[in-house]
Every structure is written in C-alpha cells, then in structure tokens.
C-alpha cells in the first residue's frame, strides 16, 4: 500500500510538471491582445517620420503606431510604449525581444528579409542628394573623388557604393549627425531618403536637394520571423488604413 501511494505521488509530480512544460507560450500577437499594450521601436532623428520635441515623440511613424495599436487591440486608447532606436539597432532590438515591432523609416530589402518579416508598405520614398546651396554638384556621378555622408546601416550605403564607387564614404550614426558633417564641410553631399532630407532642411535656403531620385524606398513595419500571425494582422491594418484614407491624412499632416 505504501509503495502504491508513493508511486501515485511520483506520477502526479511528473504529470503536473509535464503539463507545465507543455503550456503554450503566447505569441507576440496574443500577448499584445491580452495585455492591451504594444512596444514599438522608432527613430527620433528622422523628421517628419520620427523626432523629439520638448520631450514628446512626434511624426508620421509615431501617429501610425497609435493607429496600428488601435487596430490590433480594438481599444480606443491602447497603451503604446516607444523605444528609441538608431538605424543599426533596429533589427537587433526586434529579434532580441526588446520591441514587438519596428516602425522606423525601415525600407524593405532582400538582406533584411532574411532576418525579419515586413508588412505591406505604408509609404514610398526615394533616395536623393542634399548639398550646400552654392555647391557645383549636380548629380551622383559628380561625387567621385569627393566625400559623401550616409547613415550607417541605412540603404544609402549600398546605393552610393553602386552609383559612385570612387567617392569617399563617411558614416554617421544618425541623420542629425550626418547633417552636421555637411554643415561643417566634412562631407560634400548627404545621401538619404528625400522625406528625411526635407525634414533636416526645414525650410533653410542654405541647402538644396537635387531633383533626381536614385531608388524607391518602401517603408514597412518589421516583425520577427516567427510572428507570421502578427505580420498578417499588420498587412490587413495597413490596407484598411490606406482604404479609409487615414494614411493620406498622415501624409498631408506631416509632408508639408
């Protein structure tokens, strides 16, 4: 009898421990819906998409994150936590679990598609050159033998290598830092997405953006590879925001 009781006790321990081990881990989408909270990686050096003013985050991507959170959680005022990231931190922060998704002027590229999944695009930009107003540079071919500024881990790096292989490249961590290099004359031109360049110039007459666009940059929301259910929900949310005209309203608000 004692042996039977002992056996049943041991069996119960294994049974419950096995159940605990088999308890299903919540996906990112399930966690967001359960907690009613979403954590989003954003940039703060990419006006008008993401920037900080008087301690408050503003911009197209910030507003988009709030709209996306409402679509996912079905709440009028969902909790959105923002994590400020540099360009070269975006994928690591996402795949390490620091953020649920990244909405940070992140273009879809084949290289990034290996590491993360993207939603359908929510904005199309184009890479352009910004120079000082009196600069004689008229096109990217004029940069051979000169110095071009880019932001590290941005798609501008591959573009400048491909189109102006003899230019000297100077990398910066942020667009603000890269713009400072142009101001001080350490670089002859800055290559970046046109939308970001317009935000940097901010109406100044001392600089100009050259008319040609060298790429099409499809901005999309990045999620982890395993979060295919979240990717599908984001695809639908972006489509609905486009169909309802809300994305156009964001463009009118921020692309002035």
The number of E-state strands comes to 15
Q: Based on the structure given, which CATH architecture of the largest domain is correct?
A: 3-Layer(aba) Sandwich
Assign a percent range to the helix content: 40-55%
- As residue ranges, the low-confidence spans are 2-11
CA(first)-CA(last) distance: 84 Å
Helix and strand composition category? alpha/beta
Order of helices and strands: HHEEEEHEHEHEEEEHEHEHEEEHH
Concise synopsis of the structure shown:
The chain is 41% helix and 22% strand. The protein has ten helices and 15 strands. It has helices at residues 2-22, 28-35, 60-73, 90-95, 110-115, 156-163, 175-183, 194-201, 228-243, 246-254; strands at residues 37-42, 45-46, 50-53, 56-58, 79-84, 101-102, 117-118, 123-125, 127-132, 147-151, 168-172, 189-193, 207-209, 217-219, 222-223.
Description:
It is a single chain. This protein is of the alpha/beta class. It has 2 domains: 28-124 and 218-254, D-Maltodextrin-Binding Protein, domain 2 (3-Layer(aba) Sandwich); 127-215, D-Maltodextrin-Binding Protein, domain 2 (3-Layer(aba) Sandwich). It has 10 helices and 15 strands. It has helices spanning 2-22, 28-35, 60-73, 90-95, 110-115, 156-163, 175-183, 194-201, 228-243, 246-254; strands spanning 37-42, 45-46, 50-53, 56-58, 79-84, 101-102, 117-118, 123-125, 127-132, 147-151, 168-172, 189-193, 207-209, 217-219, 222-223. The strands form 5 sheets. The chain has a 5-stranded mixed sheet, sandwiched between helices. Helix 6 links the parallel strand 10 and strand 11 (168-172). The chain is elongated, with a radius of gyration of 23 Å. Mean pLDDT is 91; it is low at 2-11.
């Amino acid at each position: 009898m004692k042996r039977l009781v002992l056996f049943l006790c041991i069996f119960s321990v294994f049974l419950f421990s096995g159940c605990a081990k088999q308890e299903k881990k919540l996906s990112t989408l399930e966690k967001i819906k359960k907690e009613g909270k979403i954590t989003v990686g954003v940039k703060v050096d990419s006006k008008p998409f993401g920037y900080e003013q008087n301690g408050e985050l503003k911009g197209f991507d910030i507003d988009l994150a709030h709209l996306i959170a409402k679509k996912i959680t079905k709440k009028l005022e969902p909790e959105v936590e923002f994590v400020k990231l540099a360009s070269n931190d975006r994928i690591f922060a996402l795949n390490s679990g620091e953020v649920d998704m990244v909405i940070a002027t992140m273009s879809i590229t084949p290289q990034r598609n290996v590491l993360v999944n993207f939603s359908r695009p929510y904005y199309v930009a184009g890479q352009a050159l910004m120079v000082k107003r009196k600069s004689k540079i008229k096109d990217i071919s004029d940069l051979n033998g000169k110095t071009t500024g880019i932001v590290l881990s941005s798609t501008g790096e591959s573009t400048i290598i491909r189109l102006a292989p003899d230019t000297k490249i100077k990398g910066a961590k942020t667009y603000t830092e890269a713009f400072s290099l142009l101001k001080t004359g350490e670089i002859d031109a800055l290559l970046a997405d046109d939308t970001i360049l317009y935000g940097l110039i901010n109406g100044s007459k001392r600089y100009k953006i050259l008319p040609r666009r060298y790429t099409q940059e499809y901005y999309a929301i990045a999620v982890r590879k395993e979060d295919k259910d979240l990717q599908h929900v984001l695809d639908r949310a972006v489509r609905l925001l486009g169909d309802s005209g809300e994305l156009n309203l964001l463009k009118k608000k921020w692309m002035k």
